[in-house]
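Re: the multi-chain job from yesterday

Posting the exact lines I submitted so nobody has to dig through the queue logs.
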Amino acid sequence: MSWLNDNVMLKTQIIKKRREFDVNVSLELSKGSSLGLFGASGAGKSTVLACIAGIEEPDDGYVKLGDRELFPPSLPLHKRLIGYLTQEPGLFPHLRVSENVSFGIPNELATDKEQARWIETLRDRLQLAPLWHAPASLISGGQARRVALARMLARKPPLVLLDEPFAGLDRQLVRELIDDLIFWSRTLGFSMIAVDHQAEVLKRLCPEQAIVLENGKIVQRGGWDELHRDPATALLRSLLTPL
Amino acid sequence: MRVDRRWLARAGATVFALALLYPFTALFARVGPWQWGEDVRGPALSSVRVSLLLTGCAMVIIVALGTPVAAYIARCGTRERLLWQAVLLVPILLPPLALGILLTLAFGPYGTVGAWLEHFGVVMTNSAAAFVSTQVYVGMGYYVLGAVAAFDAVPLMLQKQAALLGLAPWKVFLRVTLPLSRLGLAVALSIAWVRAIGEFGAVVVTAYYPSGMPVQLWVNLQSFGLPAVMPLLVVFLAVALPLPWLVHVLAQRQRHA
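And the result, structure tokens for all chains:
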């Protein structure tokens, strides 16, 4: 991917008008690093991710991935090469698990041996073999998250966006999925932005740095230790306090 | 005594079905011995061929033109969508006879388009082309409005997810939108088929010949009376029902596959 020759992977400013407040967030992400977007529910975290992914269009600002401008003008979704996982696994219910995982693999590569090995690796590493031929509509919620993760990784995206993909899962499964994501981020070297309102999840996924949002604006950025030591707002202090 | 709710619902549905099918008891009315002699059978079987073949052609045109239009409308904003829906409702709302008259005036030899088509040898009255085009006008609105509803039912997020996985819009349509909307499309197609194959009012004006089944029913009624209508009515049901029903069966099967 020749357009990823810069050390800065993502550079963006998202300006998006919302009914309650305007979201205005600038951030930069270097190649292979991770960033946690932290804040209370409704702070605008998901809006920022959706705008970077292209699911929503910003009202103003810019999104630059490597040397490529994703916005403005808005680059079509299929040309963005961004992995995007949300609370809803969004599996294609009419397809089998195997077809879901290899969904994003271009037809001309489907018969490629190396490609087939890669899909098998994903299948085995994410423990999908027992349900490989099952219809996606018949698997459990936890299994669906694994399949969604495998499907996203199959294309080896250079940037992965995670919008609370572990919501509603039990702790054991969350732990396993986080371990999987960390393993694959190291193996594939993708950059990652994760959104969650649970600090412990974000700290494990994105231990290096975090940005805290309140009402669509950044109120603090830095390492997790710094956020704990000197939280910029009372709300952040409350969010970081264990129950 | 406790009555299972399912049985109550089933009993209610049965009463509904019986009421819906009640008019068909008239098939057993005393109208005299049914006529199925050569003078009735020949034209009747010819009308079956005409109806099946030409309605089939009309359906191909309706699906080929209507599906992309429906896909476009499903993505339109509210205002534009309402405009499109009004356009589609116009031919549906018109009394069929009025639609037939308008089609004859517009596409007949005295209309601009009709004269132009005749110049190329396409006759738009009392011809197969007239028959098919009338059925297209009659059925298109039903198909497109149904197809729009079917496309609306496919979660937009799934389509966006497919695009993020690298699929160009037309591939998303073929691999996600179309398969997930097939049941709704099947319903839309079967309604268009039933509407078109049973059309009389418009077709009798634009294409008395070649006679399809509804026109032949009218001819039989005029020429021979009810005894010649009843057997053709049975044939009509026997040939018109299986196709839309089969479409439903296939769509349901794929849904539960």
